[in-house]
Amino acid sequence: MTDMTLQRAAGEVRTDTAERVAKGLKRRYAAERRFRTYGLIAVCTALSFLAILLISIVGKGYTAFQQTKMQLEVHFDESIIAPNGTTDAAALAKADYNGIVKASLRKTFPEVKSRRDKRALYGIVSGGAGYEIYKMILEDPSLIGQTKKVWLSASADIDVLIKGQIDRSSPETERRVKDNEIAWVDRLAAQGAIEKQFNTTLFTAGDSRDPEQAGIWGAVVGSFFTLIVTLAISFPLGVMAAVYLEEFAPRNKLTDLIEVNINNLAAVPSIVFGLLGLAVFLNFFGLPRSAPLVGGMVLSLMTLPTIIIASRAALKAVPPSIREAALGIGASKMQMVTDHVLPSAMPGMLTGTIIGMAQALGETAPLLMIGMVAFIVDIPGGPLDPATVLPVQVYLWADSPERAFVERTSAAIMVLLGFLVCMNLIAILLRKKFERRW
Amino acid sequence: MSEALETTIEAGPRFPAGDTEDAPVKITARNVDVFYGDKQALFGIDLDIRKQKVTSLIGPSGCGKSTFLRCINRMNDVVDGCRVDGQIHLDGRDIYDRKIDVVQLRALVGMVFQKPNPFPKSIYDNVAYGPRLHGLAATRDETDEIVESSLMRAGLWAEVKDRLAEPGTGLSGGQQQRLCIARAIAVSPEVILMDEPCSALDPIATARIEELIDELRRNFTIVIVTHSMQQAARVSQRTAFFHLGNLVEVGDTEEIFTNPREQRTQDYITGRFG
Amino acid sequence: MSNEHIVTSFDADLNRLDNMIAEMGGLAESQLARSIEALCKRDVAAAERIVPADKRIDDLEEEIYEFTVKLLALRQPMADDLRIVISAIKISSVIERIGDYAKNISKRTIIIHKSPALSGALNTVSRMGNLVQGMIKNALDAYIARDADKADDVRARDREVDLLHTSLFRELLTYMMEDPRNITPCTHLLFVAKNIERIGDHTTGIAEQVHFMVHGKMPADERPKGDGSSTTVISPAIVENGLDSAQP
Q1: Which pLDDT score is estimated for C91?
Q2: Structural domain for A263, as ranges
Q3: What gap in Å lies between CA C161 and CA A393, rounded to an integer?
Q4: Considering its fold, how many domains does chain A have in total?
Q5: Which of helix, strand or coil describes residue A397?
Q6: B38 phi and psi, to 5 degrees?
Q7: If exposure means fewest CB atoms within 10 Å of the residue's CB, which of A84, B145, B168, C50 is most exposed?
Q8: Both A139 and A284 in a single domain?
Q9: Is residue A436 predicted with pLDDT exceeding 60?
Q10: What DSSP string describes chain C?
Q11: How much is the pLDDT for A12?
Q12: What residues does A74 pair with on adjacent strands?
């Protein structure tokens, strides 16, 4: 074939190809558009579910951040508070502050006479109002003997009423709040003595039977101690195990077996770890029940596989050229790992750890098994004190029949979600900051 | 006829590469076999590396030149399933002897790799790592001195002296490779091994490294593996041609490239390989 | 030198170089043959045709020179390829000299033809010319075939040419001493003889270059020489006494 014919043949092939490609193009672009639409639909569906979840939670929970308070004129009667003139702490603690509250109520509604009505009247104020008075005295002992208008927490039922969650038009027998109570509250409201204030109790108090006195602080502190213990155990163990498996372990069947088992552990249902904790930590070793120490130990068993897997991936991502360079300059294997490989892999390890911690924060089932489901009122002081964790607190409140707990449950969920989002954000930021391009 | 003019013309400097047959020997390899599992990669290599000369190892891909290079500083030890038989002596001592500490060997025999691989640390720390590791610098001043002199010898000092704290990975390719060379010479080795050091660099960076090699040769023994025959011709005094795991021919570079003894060598360097 | 390059265009280039050398050599060979024939037959017209034909040889030398420079720059030849290219440069310049000598011979033919016959001398010249022609042909064949043995053989034959030149030198000196009218033609013939002898030396140079090209080294031994003309002396007494052979 001469050069000319070759060229001509090539030219014909060229235009033929162009035509065929052009024909197929329409189909290809249509397929692409379809694929993109499917993706968009999937994303929108997922987002809408997320939106529904968030809206329902926030919708139910935002009201919990406010607590109804009523302003009453209170006489800090020294005959009740300090009858013998002693103002030391022990004496102050024993005084009948509820009596002061009751006296104030009687003064505000002098027309209430019958015993039943009086009980109902006393019921519109929170059971912890006396304690609130006590705290005011502690802060400012000079109040003794004075008469002042102070804000006291309303009871849970009144709180619910003011927040509009009780239907006033329903028959009285079906309501928790009776007509006379409504009348008193309305009178106070007309005087401007009813106000919704920010609910600090939610964030500062421990659990309580009374919803208006219940707070998540105990659960938060419990979660904190539990996570500290989890971190302290699982991070070093996980990192060291990953380093050993990745760098030093000989490649034989035993190592393969270990690897398979670790991967499987990550898929074990979390309640199994709870059972393990119950059997070994509580029954065999006799550690205190319900303590964050035990909870931390159980959770670290759970997060260990996650951390090991993430750390191994981070170690694998360190390019072999760095290792070779370190060895070439005369570093021993240990020095190569500690001076070069670990620092480079650390961001990835940290990210994995934070994600593991975020998972641990939200775990409930294993902790139920080791007893962190008890009703704990006091704020735990250390890892050995009985405590509960946020997710368990949510579970307990969700179980409770009181109306006021509904909004508080949602509020606690919001707080928990907030923590989780923060932790994941930190993980993402860390990863972005330290992401290296080799 | 008058007497011949009594001028004696002194023999001028010989071609700088010069005859290397009489240079002292730094490294001897005798009957070296290397196996990767069951597959044999090198067959009975006998090779002398001469002191303070540049020896280049050439040959087609997969011929075993890099494998041989990595035997000299025992980097093949980290490869699973790699077995080295035979003897390699550095200054008369067998480096595969059980009593030899590999870490110490690698302080005497430095290596520069094909793809520049500075540590993800600052430029200063890159160069200072080796001396600190081996205890060659006790005080900050000593370290500073070693870093400065190494960077100067590598021809990089002028370009980085104001930014020693910046990460080494932020330099250009040629600069990174010179940094790796500085890092290698900071521990004052006796031998420098280079595995295709310029293959990832542009011609100007390559030329600078070749110039650097020429300067370094005054103090170090250099063994360089290269795919480019022109580079081997420019840079080395001795050339060894490997083919399929065998050492086919070794000789002075000028001889190899103008009049090789073996037909295989000639076929390779003229591009006639079948 | 056996198999082909992977990049076939390199082989094509080397072939082209060989062809140019062969063409140039063939031209020089024929120029020499024709100039000696013109001299012996005293054919002025033929001699006049030879002079302008030399230009083609000069052009070829320039062409080869440029081509080899290009080859060196673009191909960076090594080992035997390098020796081939370098040899081509040297050989082409030698062949150009041979062409010039042939041209010189024909120029002198135009002058000599008027003179009386010097058939004895012309015979020797013709014999020398044939020998040298043979040497040129074999040397160029050896180059194309990359045959060092053939080249070494050519190298040995230069001695004969030298010996012929020495005896011709003496013969011409004798003629000149016999009859002053012979001086002009004999002097020109001396130059012609010298030219042919020089061509022989140059051809030996080509042969040595071929040896280098094949073996990578110049031939170790000294060139076999036989040229005693630089020390030849003829005394007038010998001529008067009619003695044939003269000794220095």
Answers
A1: 96
A2: 217-434
A3: 120
A4: 2
A5: helix
A6: -95, -15
A7: A84
A8: no
A9: no
A10: --S--SSHHHHHHHHHHHHHHHHHHHHHHHHHHHHHHHHHHT-HHHHHHHHHHHHHHHHHHHHHHHHHHHHHHHH---HHHHHHHHHHHHHHHHHHHHHHHHHHHHHHHHHHTTSPP-HHHHHHHHHHHHHHHHHHHHHHHHHHHT-HHHHHHHHHHHHHHHHHHHHHHHHHHHHHHH-GGGHHHHHHHHHHHHHHHHHHHHHHHHHHHHHHHHHSS--SSPPP----GGG----HHHHHTT-SS---
A11: 59
A12: A148
What is residue A134's predicted lDDT score, i.e. its pLDDT? 85
Report the pLDDT value the prediction gives residue C53, as an integer from 0 to 100. Answer: 92
CB B168 within 8 A of CB B176: yes
How many angstroms separate the CA atoms of B15 and C48, rounded? Answer: 51
Q: How is B32-74 classified by DSSP, letter by letter? A: EEEEETTEEEEEEEEEEEETTSEEEEE-STTSSHHHHHHHHTT
Q: In chain B, what residues touch A325 (CB-CB under 8 Å)?
A: 113, 117-119, 180, 183
Q: Which two tokens stand for residue A202?
A: 């939610």
Chain B interface includes C76 (CB < 8 A): yes
What are the phi and psi torsion angles at B197 (to 5°)?
-65, -20
What is the distance in angstroms between the Cα of B124 and the nearest Cα belonging to chain C? 41
Instruction: Give the H/E segment covering residue B264.
Output: helix B263-269
> Residue A30: left if φ>0, alpha if ψ -120 to 50, beta else—which one?
alpha
The string of pLDDT tens digits covering residues C105-136 is 999 888 877 776 677 888 889 999 999 999 99
- C70 located within any domain: yes
Q: Answer yes or no: do B129 and A329 touch at CB < 8 A.
A: yes
CATH number of the domain where residue C210 is located:
1.20.58.220
- Mean pLDDT, range B169-180, rounded to an integer: 92
- pLDDT surpasses 80 at C46: yes
Q: Which residues in chain C (8-27) have CB-CB distances under 8 A to chain B? A: 10
Same domain, A182 and A226: no
A55 is a domain residue:
no
Residues of C in contact with B259 (CB under 8 A): 79, 83, 215-217
Residue pair B183/B160 in contact (Cβ under 8 Å)? The answer is no
Question: Is residue A15 assigned to a domain?
Answer: no
Reported pTM: 0.78
- Cα–Cα dist A55/C31, whole Å: 107
Residue C241: band (very low, low, confident or very high) from pLDDT cuts 50, 70, 90: low
Provide the H-helix boundaries in A62-96.
78-81, 89-94
Judged against a pLDDT cut of 90, whether residue B119 lies above it is answered with: yes
CA A5, A8, A10 angle in degrees (round to 5)? Answer: 110
CATH code: domain of residue A293: 1.10.3720.10
* Res B19 pLDDT > 80: no
Interface residues from chain A to B (CB-CB < 8 Å): 251, 319, 321-322, 324-332, 335, 339-340, 343-344, 436
Q: Which are the contacts of A32, defined by CB distance < 8 A and separation ≥ 6? A: none
DSSP category for residue A146: -
Give burial (CB, 10 Å; 0-12/13-18/19+) of B219. middle
Is the model's pLDDT at B224 over the cut of 60? Answer: yes
Q: How many other CB atoms sit within 10 Å of the CB of residue A138?
A: 12
Statement: residue C238 has pLDDT above 70: no
In a domain, C58, yes or no: yes
Shortest distance between the Cα of B107 and any Cα of chain A, in A, equals 5
